[in-house]
Design a protein that fits this description.
The protein is an all-beta fold and 242 residues long. It has strands at 2-6, 12-15, 19-23, 41-49, 54-60, 64-71, 73-78, 83-87, 90-95, 100-106, 113-120, 130-135, 145-150, 158-159, 165-171, 176-180, 186-194, 197-199, 202-204, 209-213, 217-222, 226-234. Helices cover 0% and strands 54% of the residues.
Length: 242
Amino acid sequence: MKTVYHKADTRGHANHGWLNSYHTFSFAGYQNQERMNFGVLRVLNDDTVSQGMGFGTHPHRDMEIISIPLEGDLEHKDSMGTTAVIKKGEIQVMSAGTGVQHSEYNKNKDEPVKFLQIWVFPREIGVEPRYDQQNIKSEEKINDFQQILSPDKNDDGVWIHQDAWFSLANFKNGNSKDYPLHKSGNGVYAFVLSGTAKIGDQILNSRDGLGIWDTQSFNVEALEDAEILLMEVPMELPDYLK
């Protein structure tokens, strides 16, 4: 098993006043050639947006964009005619494909919104743009892996145009379980949302990240109550990026 450890305080950081953002991988003004991506996982931003503020309308194409709110309400509008609000306990996905414009704003005037912004390279370009969101709170599992994203539209959670599986691990102190990878050639980027956990020989605290590959499974152990996002993705980039 191979791993790469990213301690929380080694992430890129940009504070724009209305936006406080931490970048696990190179993004905007933070450029680190050793941290461009983990396989097809291109962006993992940990964002806090001030009351009533947000990202104005801007374009994307040929990217799978996932948002996971951690606190507050996030208002989404896009050129496909979608208007929606997502909140903690939900997940949003947008396949940019041939091109889409969207905005994301803090819906509330009295509290910030905190969310993860995640970009994944699709397996192919030029797909039809699409939007979806789902409530994942109602399916929450304790001391187990709750799948929230996959390549299969008929499976649990939302789906994207990539052989990727995302799961939430909400483990109580002292509990552990093996995570089996879904597909050969995939790796997993584990990001600790809260608490302390151990994967292999590595102890991880809140907002630490660990990339894991060249293995069929690994063990996740909670050293205190912990919530962890596991992002399983292909390690090989698609042909259009080579």
